[in-house]
């Protein structure tokens, strides 16, 4: 027994030590998905170097990477940042200033989608991170259902109907009459809550900004639920994925809602609000059965969702190689064309490549639609100036309270009050209205 | 006992060094943080010293007291259920007239939920309790026990009860084993004497079993309080990580974690840690005193 | 007598129901681990499906749960061994020798036993950063050397079971103090070590918040952290794979427990009665 314990102790200490001393790579890249593995393979081949890709799951990404960036110990050479915490990180001195010598990326500015470029700037307007993609969103819908209920599946005509919130509700009513549901859940209208005149969540005076459009989100979300325009399948839940391929079960507690409603076991979802990347990473992967039956069009307002920016760590010891890698990823026409057309299908922020690809393009999955053209148009309408570092946390808190109101557990006033309190509690420096 | 021996210092050195570096130092550092507005980013050197400002915020922070209340409610419900089952089982298995068989097997089976990683348990219940497609609702519906699915994790009462019951499910086996051992340790003579005096079952339970069991009950109670006040994994992984529905699963440690790591209020998070510490000490002390004061009477 | 038999039958039925309640969640988990996502969404059944290999592929392509298992084992075993050895050494010194500060050290133990682990968490995090130990197992393992509760327990145990005359005899035979600790004291402490070892092992195995804050590389993740990461991962879109991931984290431990249960339960009992 004693020997066994001793042996186990020695083995474990040995294993711990070996885990800490792996072969050293020439370049370490940290990200939260494996999408950079392809480019890295290519880069290793071109430059005959060894590049390590560390993937940290999204849930843990900031908590685990931040300390390394703070202390510099164990920090990667190149790392990505998602829009969620991009602004936070740009305020810290984590990424190297790419506007300075020898990079001078400012001269690239005109070749990039404006909002994407602007979002990579720190408070002093220096570019610290760049992105290869642009991620505007739209409403993806099922052509067959559009034809049956709306009489047309043409993206322009459907987009016309979707161009206001009232229009969306009208379509919702028509869908419901034929036992379809407009959206999987109420969150599908959240992208449009900023309205026609978007305001930041927190303005320069550090005040929380509540607008009419945001307040109306409460009412629209409630209307969607109460009139049963949604299928009660929360975004990213298994039921949500299931809703893209066919009818899903819909066993709501009817007595709580509307006694007169016919209790249908199953219902089919018509549309969903999703950004560019969802076409390849969500729909094509999870909904092969309905390929060709989809199209994408605009919602009431343009929006974008997600997006990955990349930069190099300010104290990296391999800056030359890191810079080569970043250049290849965002500025190498040949590589980008090949990468995008053969694998990711991303809509690129680098205009020279993107406009070339979009010419005469037909996407089979979307019934032959040229979605590049559509998304580029949408991306041009996006304004980066209303994005703040608080957006994710405040948006989450807001969404939660709207959800409580929709569920009927609190009144609108209570939900709003609770939202203000939560914001105040999480960010004591922000002044709340009233 | 030996006289002062230099080897003694050598033997306790590893303990003392690690104790100072990994226990005392972090605790003092946490205290220092609690006096600043450190965000967790940009280095402590750039943080502002705010004196006891965070502590003033703590005593007026309704979310902290709400979290305290939630933690207490969940723990209390869990403890009552757990102890009722555990004590009931312990009495059954120790009853000499019943002579139940299979004690070893039942002890093992009841203890099993306790050794499972809490994170796994939380994740498991997260999907079992899903409203629309969770296995629990599906099963209850098909058995005809309910007509429409219950949104377990969306109503504060159900959600708190669910966490409490999961806790009870995990811990009743542990308490049962300990209580059974305690009851078995009580001398048979007491019961025989009581039997001769014509005492009823209830009388021997309240006059012999409970008083004799007091040290064991105290042990179970104290360890349960200390563990219960630190409830974190279950609420963190069961809902949206912020203690939904309507903050009813926002426990003290979850609140600490969110303030420190999500909202970047590291300094206030440190203050919350001290708030939790003070509450734990008070609770342990009060429990100790009330248990032993009764004995004096 | 007949009344007793009837009562016993009733009690056994009630116990069986309780056992079933205990195991229903596990059974649901195992059944659903073998079914595909769409089957699970359609409803619950008691009959296993046939999608277990597909689920396994989905799961393993994203997260190596076995790796998490190994990692948890490495950490938990190291913690348990260090905890036992150094606590025994400290308890030995406290019992056998007389030295300055002895009482202060002992009192500080008692105070520290009341301190919740979270109190030092933020400090530990920054300390680990300063020592360059973030994203390694050291901050999880090293603190095990200083475990006041274990020392306290061992000290009480040694006081009642060890006679100083054994040590006197050893010294006359020319044995060194450390040698005597290894040859005489450690074997003597073995029952106590087993008791505390099980608690320590389970505690480390279940620890979620510390590794969550300290570890960063997925290949170092312990099982609880992996389970947490699974929730927001692409695996979550496939319920079958999700159930399978949980099952892998649970079933081996259940099997190990069933083999060791007698031993473990007697240790729990001892810990409560003597502690």
TrEMBL record, chain A:
Domain of life the protein comes from: Bacteria
Any idea what this protein is called?
Answer: ABC transporter substrate-binding protein
**Which PANTHER family does this one have?**
ARABINOSE-BINDING PROTEIN-RELATED (PTHR43649), POLYGALACTURONAN_RHAMNOGALACTURONAN-BINDING PROTEIN YTCQ (PTHR43649:SF33)
Which Gene3D superfamilies did the record assign? Answer: Periplasmic binding protein-like II
Do the record's keywords include Cell membrane? yes
> Keywords assigned by UniProt?
Cell membrane, Lipoprotein, Membrane, Palmitate, Signal
Could you say which residues form the signal peptide?
1-21
Q: Which InterPro entries is this protein grouped with?
A: Bact_solute-bd_prot1 (IPR050490), SBP (IPR006059)
SUPFAM superfamilies per UniProt: Periplasmic binding protein-like II
UniProtKB/TrEMBL annotation, chain B:
What the entry lists under Pfam families is as follows: BPD_transp_1
Q: Which GO terms describe its cellular component?
A: plasma membrane
UniProt keyword terms in alphabetical order: Cell membrane, Membrane, Transmembrane, Transmembrane helix, Transport
According to its record, how does it sit in the membrane? Answer: Multi-pass membrane protein
CDD domains, per database record: TM_PBP2
Q: Which domain of life is it from?
A: Bacteria
Regions crossing the membrane: 9-33, 74-93, 105-129, 157-181, 216-232, 266-288
Localisation per UniProt entry: Cell membrane
| Gene Ontology annotations of biological process type | transmembrane transport
Q: What residues does the ABC transmembrane type-1 domain cover? A: 68-287
Which family is this sequence assigned to?
Belongs to the binding-protein-dependent transport system permease family.
The protein in question is named Sugar ABC transporter permease
Organism per entry? Oceanobacillus jordanicus
* Phylogenetic lineage: Bacteria, Bacillati, Bacillota, Bacilli, Bacillales
Automatic annotation (TrEMBL), chain C:
User: To which protein family does this belong?
Assistant: Belongs to the binding-protein-dependent transport system permease family.
Ranges annotated as spanning the membrane: 9-30, 73-97, 104-125, 137-159, 180-202, 242-265
Q: Which organism is it from?
A: Oceanobacillus jordanicus
Question: Superkingdom of this entry's organism?
Answer: Bacteria
Membrane topology term: Multi-pass membrane protein
**What processes does the entry annotate via GO biological process terms?**
transmembrane transport
Q: Which PROSITE patterns does the protein's record reference?
A: ABC_TM1
InterPro entries according to UniProt? MetI-like, MetI-like_sf
**What are the protein's UniProt keywords?**
Cell membrane, Membrane, Transmembrane, Transmembrane helix, Transport
| UniProt cross-references to Pfam families, sorted A to Z | BPD_transp_1 (PF00528)
Q: Which SUPFAM superfamilies match?
A: MetI-like (SSF161098)
Q: Which ranges carry the ABC transmembrane type-1 domain?
A: 69-260
Where in the cell is the protein located?
Cell membrane
What the entry lists under PANTHER family is as follows: ABC TRANSPORTER PERMEASE PROTEIN MG189-RELATED-RELATED, ARABINOOLIGOSACCHARIDES TRANSPORT SYSTEM PERMEASE PROTEIN ARAQ
Q: What is the lineage of its organism?
A: Bacteria, Bacillati, Bacillota, Bacilli, Bacillales
**GO CC aspect terms:** plasma membrane
Its recorded name reads Carbohydrate ABC transporter permease
